[in-house]
């Protein structure tokens, strides 16, 4: 076995690839045909950042007697490389289907996009 230690650094990075090559043999051994092994370290921590809801993911509201607005806050953390677009849809109610624009439960908009700039 060849043991290699990958060090976990604090940087958000794109995928990195390196090779391990067998370069010689002694004691009568001969190197075979497969002398190179490629190792890819997957990108870490999403270089463009990680986006999530900042507030609770489960919100319970009383049945309103007039139109009520709910604010959901998005947070982008980690490395903030480049502009990012987050698309969203409302699903339901009580289903996994995308809510159509013409419905009797939720007013416009029922879908859209949110943008984070390059920071």
Automatic annotation (TrEMBL):
<dbReference type="GO" id="GO:0007601">
    <property type="term" value="P:visual perception"/>
</dbReference>
<dbReference type="GO" id="GO:0004930">
    <property type="term" value="F:G protein-coupled receptor activity"/>
</dbReference>
<dbReference type="GO" id="GO:0032420">
    <property type="term" value="C:stereocilium"/>
</dbReference>
<dbReference type="GO" id="GO:0001965">
    <property type="term" value="F:G-protein alpha-subunit binding"/>
</dbReference>
<dbReference type="InterPro" id="IPR038081">
    <property type="entry name" value="CalX-like_sf"/>
</dbReference>
<dbReference type="GO" id="GO:0010855">
    <property type="term" value="F:adenylate cyclase inhibitor activity"/>
</dbReference>
<protein>
    <submittedName>
        <fullName>Adhesion G protein-coupled receptor V1</fullName>
    </submittedName>
</protein>
<dbReference type="GO" id="GO:0005737">
    <property type="term" value="C:cytoplasm"/>
</dbReference>
<dbReference type="GO" id="GO:0071277">
    <property type="term" value="P:cellular response to calcium ion"/>
</dbReference>
<dbReference type="GO" id="GO:0007605">
    <property type="term" value="P:sensory perception of sound"/>
</dbReference>
<dbReference type="InterPro" id="IPR026919">
    <property type="entry name" value="ADGRV1"/>
</dbReference>
<keyword id="KW-0675">Receptor</keyword>
<dbReference type="GO" id="GO:0016020">
    <property type="term" value="C:membrane"/>
</dbReference>
